[in-house]
Please model this.
Amino acid sequence: MANAYTTTGSSSLGGTAGGAGLVQKAYDRLLEFALRSEPLIRSVADKRPARQAIPGSTVVLQRYVDLDAQTTALTEDADRDAVALSTPTSVTITLAEYGNSVLVTRALELFSLADVDPAIANIIAFNLADSIDQVAMTTLRGGSNVIYSGSTATSTATITAAATLSSANIRKAVAKLRANKTTGRKGSLYWAGIHPEVSHDLRAETGSAGWLLPNQYGSSQDRIWAGEIGTYEGAYFVESPRLYNATDGASSARVYRTILAGQQALAEAVAEEPHVVIGPVVDKLMRHRPMGWYGVLGFARYREEALYRIESGSSIA
Model:
């Protein structure tokens, strides 16, 4: 009589994985989070209300208007007529509520193989930063000053994948910012936010001889960890996939937005800083626990002359 083996099979002690039997699926109790990009767009907002008069759903920021230069010499025996100061210009920031929440059941906490509460708190906190960053990006990329890459592009819809970002585009944007008397954000350098797939084309064009590498920052290595990759043509570049792109070019080509900004390009007003909220348990059996985030704030472009957007394709899109 042939031997009968006790095995991992479905007809023996092993049984069927996931069902009855001694051989079962094994799960790692440590779960990894999804891949994330570091929120950084909100940091461009360096203008805020300094002495807000009262709370309100909108906040108005104003700027004085300088007098016209007077280049005609005074007449010795004639008094110069007085001139009136112009009405200040204003920018209005509309505040809005933002938030998100999840409702965690008691059963999940009891049955889960992993400790879900810290994970949910982490996911909520990242969702807060991610969401507010995208709100800031929507305002920042809507500026009126735009340069289109490529010799034939005249609008977003005419951008092709071959219309890659060039050094000439950067030089033009920097020249326009300086011509507008815009103050740099780091000395005379302007902030430049660039998508990695656009950075690839720019650095391939310029070569290492034209690009100041991060290790040349010496002791200021913290700039590298903020996403900064180097300085070039009057701007310091921060590389991030958060720079907006969409398939709204010619024949649905992907169009990338590279942003150059000086001081006070973007303003924000905050009524309540976004923060994580642990809600009250209000169901009869105390089984449902809410966790989320909430904030009230708004963004606006404060100085359009301090902001330029370059729209381009990418050779590796």
